[in-house]
């Protein structure tokens, strides 16, 4: 990474920093810990599962609805860094606070987790939008891919440390309770997140912006309304968001449902954790490869390759029966997961007007978050109607096909830029 600028390195490090939260807090240790706290607080298993889901949904909904509004305000000079710092701070402080909750207070733990989700998701809106400030159009695919790739490796280091602490505690080799072991992992995650965000806070600045006005909030609402009103001038962006909505829904569903699918095949939790770790290591080089090939062949072609790969994954998922089959499936997911996410981010960043990047990444966030609804519902419905999880997995192909067809309708980036530049002049 010696050939990267200081701003590019600092931006990439935030993926390295916050991925520890995704791995440890969202996916593994906190959900298990919450179940323990809920049980100590005499909450039924059914209620705890339902409240956990409601908390995630409500927090994500709040961020998604606020995203375009906050993003529009953040397009003013000096606001992007302030909003990023605010949400990042909420996330880190709330993660630290998780360790201070008594082990019989599930409602307090849920409230703090809601703030964690708010801080993490909110910070990512402005972090993604900073991509236009730290690099050029020609390097965006490469830099975005490096970010996701470093995130995969960065998430595994604290995760392995945290898992070792928990496992040693369970084996009686560490003279502390399981609850205290989990709290230590929360502090490790917050520390990792905070320390590796410092370079971004120091070195990354908002290069593209709109000059401040006398009434920035009311003016922001007017600009947001004008964007909706002039949506026909943003045809390329709008069609891409529809395509992204469908294919990223399939990607996120496969990621989110993989543990349940593996459990249905009789794979133990320990084995699933090992598979999850190895998938991260597989995703690292393939994500970088996607970035390099996108620079050579074009980002759109790599998105096509990613979607086709996932269609093949769905077909293969229909036929798997053994743990070995699941290993192959997981490695295939790792080969495309980071690449399609990274290139989607950079492709969108090249489509949008740079001085309005926060506003448009607010819409990007909404489409990405609401896309997480349809896929799981489709899998659940088909699985329930047919009685076979395999049928639920193969049903996701329809999402990837729709996404592929819509992506074909996105105009070339050069044509889109001409339209967006023209509309920016009209709206400014």
TrEMBL record:
InterPro entries, alphabetized: Atg22-like, ATG22/LtaA_families, MFS_dom, MFS_trans_sf
Compartment annotation: Cell membrane
Domain of life (superkingdom): Bacteria
Domain Major facilitator superfamily (MFS) profile: 236-428
Topological type in the membrane: Multi-pass membrane protein
Entry keyword set: Membrane, Transmembrane, Transmembrane helix, Transport
Organism of provenance: Holtiella tumoricola
Protein name: MFS transporter
UniProt GO cellular component terms: plasma membrane
Subcellular location, principal: membrane
